[in-house]
Amino acid sequence: MTDNRDTFWKRLEGINAGMLGAEPDWRLVPMSHYAEPETATLWFITAAGTDLVEAVEGGAKKAVHAVGDGDGQLYARIEGRLELSNDKAKLDEVWNAVASSWFGNDERDPDVRLLKFTMSEAEVWTTAGRIGFFYEIAKSKITGAKPDTGDHFTVSF
């Protein structure tokens, strides 16, 4: 289990965005995340009035964050709870050039909202990447053996 968790976090390091959605409508929208492996938390910066903010204004909701690596080394569906956070120190920590593109250089803009996603479980698929995948397909055509397309596992947080 620890190896799978380590693999998940190591592969997630190379991914900075995914599709985030929360109950009740589960509408997935693209969002950049900021990972905190020590607490199994992902942080998101968004704006007041967005569907995600409106969904959690009354309290934490079940949510899902789907990520995929452009090189094909990680695909994951991460489940957890999404809530608003007023942690100004965390906002200072995760504030970056991407966020400032939306809000100017002012992280104290009254429209800025910080979302905390506490992960409970992730279903994960890992591969050797595109080149490894094509190698396995070619090898299977020559040998007749099934290709090794990677690992599939679940991580609980």
From TrEMBL:
<protein>
    <submittedName>
        <fullName>General stress protein 26</fullName>
    </submittedName>
</protein>
<dbReference type="InterPro" id="IPR012349">
    <property type="entry name" value="Split_barrel_FMN-bd"/>
</dbReference>
<dbReference type="InterPro" id="IPR038725">
    <property type="entry name" value="YdaG_split_barrel_FMN-bd"/>
</dbReference>
<dbReference type="Pfam" id="PF16242">
    <property type="entry name" value="Pyrid_ox_like"/>
</dbReference>
<feature type="domain" description="General stress protein FMN-binding split barrel">
    <location>
        <begin position="3"/>
        <end position="148"/>
    </location>
</feature>
<dbReference type="InterPro" id="IPR052917">
    <property type="entry name" value="Stress-Dev_Protein"/>
</dbReference>
